[in-house]
Amino acid sequence: MARSTWQPVRILGKGPWSLLPAQTWSVVTDFFIFAAGLSVFYAILVMARTWFGPFNPHVEISRDPSHLPLYAAYSLLRITIAYILSLGFTLVYGYVAAYNPRAERIMIPLLDILQSIPVLSFLPGVMLAMVALFPHHQIGVEMGAILLIFTGQVWNMAFSFYSSLKSIPRDMREAAKIYRFGWYQRFMQFELPYAAIGLVWNSMMSVAGGWFFLMACEMFVLGSNDFRLPGLGSYLQTAASAGDTEAILWGVGTMIAVIVVLDQIVWRPIIAWAEKFKMEQVESTDAPQSWFLDLVQHSRLLVKLRKRFFRPLRERLTLYFAREYGAESEEVTPPGWKVWVGRIIASIAVMAVFYAMVRTIGMLMELNRSDYHQIMTGAAATFGRVLIALVIGSLWTIPVGVAIGFNPKLARIAQPLAQIAASVPATALFPIVLLLLIRIGGGLGIGSVVLLLLGTQWYILFNVIAGAMAIPTDLKEASSLFKFSRGQRWRRLILPGIFPYLVTGLVTASGGAWNASIVAEYFRLKDQTYTTVGLGATISRATDSGNFALLLASTIVMAMVVVTVNRLVWRRMYRLAAARYTLET
Amino acid sequence: MSEAIIQARDVEKYYVQPDGNRIEVIAPTDLEVWPGKIVGLLGPSGSGKSTLLRMLTGLSKPSSGHVMWHGKMMDGQIPNVSIVFQSFALFPWLTVLENVEAPLVARGVGAIERHKRALKMIDTVGLDGFETAYPKELSGGMKQRVGFARALVVEPEVLFMDEPFSALDVLTAENLRSELLELWLSKKMPTKAIFIVTHNIEEAVLLADRVIVLGRNPARIRSDFEIDIPQYRDRKSPRFLAYVDYIYKTLTRPQEEAEIPGKDTAASNNGRARERTKFQMLPHARPGGIAGFLELLADRSGRDDLYKLADELAMDVDDLLPIVEASELLGFAVLREGDVEITPEGKGFAEADIQAQKMLFREAALKNIAILRLIENTLHAKRDHAIGEEFFRDILDEHFSVDEVERQFQTALNWGRYAEIFDYDSENGRLFHREESDVLPLTEGA
Predict the structure, then answer these.
(1) How far is Cα A108 from Cα A161, in angstroms, rounded to an integer?
(2) Which residues contact A226 (CB under 8 A, 6 or more apart)?
């Protein structure tokens, strides 16, 4: 009809963007990407200026919300650098451990132990060393913080990469060999892609853990030194110390915003992109999606850049390596000098370990009986607290998690909310929670349990949800068909079904809780120190007073407790879960 | 006569155990790959076919003996060969084109040339139009076409195939087989020889100019002969069937007496088996499968041609042979010239009801199977009538390779539990006597 052309075009159910022609979209994207590149460059300049500026132990942290973007950028940069370091370390460590059987025998148990050492007790040592290394520049403290985050996030990544490499199917490895892949092509086309998904998920976990440590180490006291780094963590601590509720809200809001934005423009796109590395034989129906990835893939600027620059570069590199370092023939015996260099390095390492052991024992001898008494009672107290936190955590997360897992509608609403709640680092909330507790009138003895819970309950919740979702529908139907009572349903179906997942959640939660006890049991707020009996408190106090012998002893005890609990309890639970409660045919 | 492309001389594969005990997987073997020929390597599963293939390609080194490539020693080098894998072994993150290009990249071929060659090969195997697809978007048959294109794009002198059609359904496999044959016969394939490993007898007779049949434990060549029928071959022709029948006979022909002590103990006294330190290799068959097979055999007047049976049951030899071997080992059936015949014991077993079948199986197993007898005696001798599985694994360890120990143990476990010779607690890995332990371990909620 002629008249209908008069009517305005109305597009229902689509956003205003859809009215723009596709061309404009792309220009907008290009502009956005260009601006993003520019701002990263600017940020690096600003950081560099501060870092190489003179050492200033008394950085004033402003409570003015207008400083927050800058503080957030500082924190983000620290995380990023630490992550890049971790990734580099992971690739090298995992690669060597996977391909050198002799190194593997040392490197993998070492990884297991390093994973159990409470990172926060490294803090004083690392900081002092770094400040001593760069006595006149801010970069010393920065590097200390970065190194600390690095030690907090690297181990699980390295482990994931190593086990991915070890689990590459034999046929695929043989295909690479028979077609004479050189090491570069093997790495780029085959090993890295194979490990990609595990690496991505572990990176996400690691970076979340990184926030936890960053919040704790941006502001801390070591003897007479008061180290402060401008960042989100120090902002929150300062705000809490001053009891400035408005600033606290601004800080927490920024924190959540940063995490949500990171999730949307970094992790989701990467997960959606990594989907293609899945070793599946058929296409899955609900592959993860990301609007940002779609956006980036349609940016003309990036498409052009990829075509003109990255693709030719990749082509050249690949051909260069293929021609220069093609398929290596197997070296049967390494040349003599290599063997000797290896032996010399090994003997130096053995001597160094021996020397360190002697010194350590010497240091531990300095401690008297009351010190050991303190450590042991502290260990018992913290053990109890971790246990209580796990029990309380399980008590509320199991019913809630099962409810969410069984109800897809509820899951759609609850899961993103829980993810956001979980991603806020507990250490950022510590000062606020502590403030509330003090107002209510609870001591840190109970308060620290709340703090531990805050940091660890999410691991349990997410695993329970995953476990409940994995229970097959036919089993659920069978249980209703047989008219199971409520109790029977839980005993026969739900608890056994979620058991393996629950164990995984509890292992992570328990490790996290031990680590968190260092910050949770000893807290400085408004020039006042709140403390309670506990191994974490002992570690923090030793740090504070510069008592290195005590710090060493209590750290060793904590690592030993964690390793022992892992071996005696969790590993058995894992085995039981794998033997009896795994749902497979 | 041209010279062989690959020559294997006295190649042998064994694993040395920590205690110095050698487990031989492949007995010293001679083998050649000649130009212009398709060689088919046949053998039951677990016979070391794949290991032999990997030694010929240079992927795996023989424990002793050597492999020569055009008369020169092959040490650690991969010669110009390709493998088509049973599992396809494609890289799922690369497109069809990138997968086919990958071997050329490794050889440093530039982008334009690489593209041209890969596209041509994709065209040859009939995949044009799918260049940008990812493997997961393709069906099994199309994936294996990619496998072929990738293998052929480097123009290998010898194309190795490791059960290339086993993962495909019957029709797709048939289709791919005939296309492969056509490419080969019309010389569209830049390859001088093909070496195909298979457990499908008809496939071997259909494709190969020469067939090598392997026996197992350890693998050694049982028969090596030319198939003297011009291509394309008719599956129904008498000569074709004669070859198939011959291979069946070879595969089922009793091995040397020393290999299978169970065979003669079935007829004679029990004491002899105990003197021997060697255990029989248990075929990986389930009691249910054995019972079903014997019942079928009893229904057909107790004797039938193996090939016909397999054909009727639509089973590969690989699936049927273990069942037949197990029946034989238990004294329920005997093999004669490719025919299988039920024994009186077997007939009794086939006609009994479930409980009686268990009793008969128990009798036969204790009489004929050394490892089960050992378990029974050990459990009797122990005061608590229970023993950890490690004990038996250690014993098996001295006779079999690591993977085989696991399979042997699982089979023994399966048979023993079915025959109610013992019970097994999987949680702490203990075997125990049922009568003596009336009190079962409490399970939660029970």
Answers:
(1) 12
(2) A57, A58
Q: Could B445 and A492 be called an inter-chain contact, meaning their C-beta atoms sit closer than 8 Å? A: yes
Report DSSP letters for A224-256, one per residue. Answer: TEEEE--SHHHHHHHHHHHT-HHHHHHHHHHHH
What is the DSSP pairing of strand B158-162 with strand B38-42? Answer: unpaired
Residues of chain B with Cβ-Cβ distance to A576 below 8 Å are 427
How confident is the prediction along chain A (585 residues), in pLDDT tens digits per residue?
Answer: 333 333 333 333 334 444 444 455 566 667 777 777 777 777 777 766 666 666 665 667 788 888 888 889 888 888 999 999 999 999 999 999 888 888 888 888 888 777 777 777 777 777 777 777 777 777 788 888 888 888 888 888 888 899 888 888 888 889 998 988 888 888 888 899 988 888 888 888 888 888 888 887 787 766 666 777 888 888 888 887 787 888 888 988 898 898 888 888 888 888 888 877 876 656 655 666 777 777 777 777 777 777 788 888 888 888 887 777 765 555 555 667 777 888 888 889 888 888 888 888 887 888 888 888 888 999 999 999 999 999 999 999 999 999 988 887 887 788 777 777 777 777 777 777 877 877 777 677 778 888 888 878 888 888 888 888 888 888 888 888 888 888 888 888 888 888 888 888 888 888 888 888 888 888 776 667 778 888 888 888 887 777 878 888 888 888 888 888 888 888 888 888 877 777 654
CA A432 to chain centre: 23
Backbone angles phi, psi at A221, to 5 degrees: -110, 135
Pick among B51, B107, B155 to test the A interface (most A CBs inside 10 A) = B107
CA distance A390 to A459: 10
A175 CB near a chain B CB, below 8 Å? yes
Q: Are A221 and A58 in contact (CB under 8 A)?
A: no
pTM exceeds cut of 0.80:
no
Is any Cβ of chain B less than 8 angstroms from the Cβ of A179?
yes
Closest partner residue to A326 among B76, B108, B427, by Cβ?
B108
Q: Which residues of chain A neighbour B108 with C-beta distances below 8 Å? A: 319, 322-323, 326
How far apart are the C-alpha atoms of A229 and B237, rounded to whole Å? 87
Tell me how far apart the terminal alpha carbons of chain B are, to the nearest angstrom.
Answer: 76
For A57: left if phi > 0, alpha if psi spans -120 to 50, otherwise beta; the answer is alpha
Give, for B425, the enclosing helix (H) or strand (E): strand B423-425
Q: Is B20 left (phi over 0), alpha (psi -120 to 50) or beta?
A: left
Backbone angles phi, psi at B66, to 5 degrees: -150, 160
- Hey, is the C-beta of A492 within 8 angstroms of any chain B C-beta? yes
Name the burial class of residue A139, with classes exposed (0-12), middle (13-18) and buried (19+) by CB atoms within 10 angstroms of its CB: buried
- Token readout for A193 is 């892609």
**End-to-end CA gap in chain A:** 63
Measure the CA–CA gap between A298 and A533, rounded to whole angstroms: 58
